[in-house]
Amino acid sequence: MNKSLEEHFNNWIEHLQKVRDLSQNTLISYKHDVTKFVEFIFIHNDKELTINDLNKLTISDFRSFLTNLRNQNLSNVSIARVISSLKSFFNYLIQSEIIENSAIQSLKSPRQKKSIPRPISAELAIEAIKYAEEIENEKWVGLRNKSILMLLYGCGLRISEALNLNFKDINTEDYLLIKGKGGKERMVPLMDNIKSEIYKYINDCPKNFTNDDPLFVGKRMDRLSPRIVQYTLEKIRLNLSLPETATPHALRHSFATHLLDSGGDLRTIQELLGHSSLSTTQKYTKVETERLYEAYSRTHPLAKK
User: Fold this and answer.
1) pLDDT (tens digit per residue) in 63-74
2) Residue 1: count of CB within 10 angstroms of its CB
């Protein structure tokens, strides 16, 4: 790419780093993805790519690049990530009024199979939570990460629900009022040991909290990015040699599965998770037909005849 385009490219990376607070690994992926596209266009057109060239690209150019990725035997997940990186770069240029070309928005990412994360054992979940505090150099950061993971595994919260909490939400009550998908509210019990860990974080955090402040903050004292939580678990997985299934969402999944294994009923788990229908909860917790049949044959009056 020429000097002008390279300057805008670097500004975009800086924007991702400062505004979106993305990790270094994610930034490296973004750089690699866009660079791969630039190199493809260079070979395709046999000339250095400029801002003016970006304005002239058509959907056919992007589809040719997509075909090239498929020919490299990349997985659908990897291809989808590359396209997402490209769209981010082009959106930045459009919003910055550097280009007007929005042809890439018509490029569809390959379909991916939706899979529910497998639960991890209670022992591994607890081990990961404890290590979240130990792995960080700054004590308050470790306490923050530990508190978040405890909310995911101990209360079954989504990452977004945990990070959307404000300081005033941690009050004298023994429950949390959670606003879930579609603005639907639910009450989730908050165990004393989880609340205690959250207050340890609050007392150690170098921020003077007011009621409407975000509860979980980054080093710039603004609301924490979900990517930081994901990156934290990536580090924990590497250090403890945990399975790749140990993700933030898997902790929520484990919360439901372990409750079910301990005799919790589906209706209660449905309410705790904030699912609108029981069928979603059944799929989420991977309730097997044999298990339901066993419960039926043990409890239903007709089955006892």
Assistant:
1) 998 898 889 888
2) 20
Give the model's pLDDT for residue 145: 96
How many Å apart are CA 126 and CA 153, to the nearest integer? 9
Question: CB of 112 within 8 A of CB of 76?
Answer: yes
Helix (H, G, I), strand (E, B) or coil at 16: helix
CA–CA separation, 34 and 90 (whole Å): 10
| The residue type at 27 | L
| Closest to 256 in 3D by CA, of 214, 219, 287, 211 | 287
Task: For the chain, list the strands marked E by DSSP.
Answer: 175-179, 185-189
Tokens read off for 195: 């609340």
Choice among 77-91, 111-125, 126-140, 179-193 with the minimum mean pLDDT? 111-125
Sequence letter at residue 154:
G
Q: Domains in the chain and their CATH numbers?
A: 3-106 (1.10.150.130), 122-290 (1.10.443.10)
Catalytic residues: 158, 181, 249, 252, 275, 284
Percent of the chain with pLDDT over 70: 86
CA 131 to CA 134: how far, in whole Å? 5
Tell me, yes or no, if the pTM score tops 0.85. no
**Chain mean position to CA 7:** 30
Q: Are strands 175-179 and 185-189 parallel, antiparallel or unpaired?
A: antiparallel
As a whole number, the mean pLDDT across the chain is: 83
